[in-house]
Structure formats: C-alpha cells, structure tokens
Amino acid sequence: MKSMKHTLVAMLGLVLMMALPAAAQSSPEEVADAFNKAIESADEAAVERLLAPDVMILEGGHAQKSRADYMAGHMKSDMAFIPHMTRTVLDRQVSADGDLAWVVTFSTMKGSFKGKDYDFSSRELLVMKKTDGTWQITLVHWTDK
C-alpha cells in the first residue's frame, strides 16, 4: 500500500509539472535553453507553450508568421535535424526592459545528417514578452554562416 501511495504522489507531481507552462522559467535565458531543448528532444507540447501564438519565426529565406504555421511546417524539419548536431554556445547576451527581453546566442553547430557533414556558425535572436508573469517567445531569428 505504501509503494502505491508513493507511486500516486510521484504521478501527481509529474502531472502538475507538465501542467505548468514551460515558459514559466524564471529568466529569459532559461526560456531560451528550454526552447532549444524542446526542439532537440522533439517536445512539441513544450514548443507550443514557449512560443506566443503570434510568434514570427525567421530562418534563412523562410518566415512563419504564427506558432501554428511553424508547428505545422518547418518545426518538423528542425526537430529532425537538430538532434544530429552538437551545439556549442560561444557567447550569449541577455537583456530585458520591463516585460520585454531578448536573448542573442552565438554558437557553432557540428554534425552529420542524411549523409552530409555540417560545421557552421549560428546566431539566434529570441525576443520575449512577459504576460501574467510568464515569458513567451514572440520572435525567433536564426541565421547561419
């Protein structure tokens, strides 16, 4: 009986953790890390919680003008590609002004995907807005060179 009680308590704790918004991270930097981890681990629910409904995502020559656009389209490609890369953060700058924040991350990406080797520099700009105490990403701009 005691182990069943512990199991129920653990399951309740897990359910409560999953119910909390992933964007409720305490800092914009934590939101940036959670977003990258969600893509790497193909956690679509976390991506949905972290992105504002009206997020704009700019990548190369592509733009998704909402969370729904990204999730229905290019997100799948990102989730297929990113787990094959090793990302090394070289520099990160975090700034905030009231309920707005931005995180600029410079990194390198190395790996192999579908028989092709990759080794490139990446720049990520995330702009976030805090609403009701929760940070959500409102702009993603990825560039590589």
Automatic annotation (TrEMBL):
Residues 1-24 form the signal peptide. SUPFAM superfamilies: NTF2-like. Keywords: Signal. Residues 30-137 form the DUF4440 domain. This is YybH family protein. It comes from Kordiimonas lipolytica.
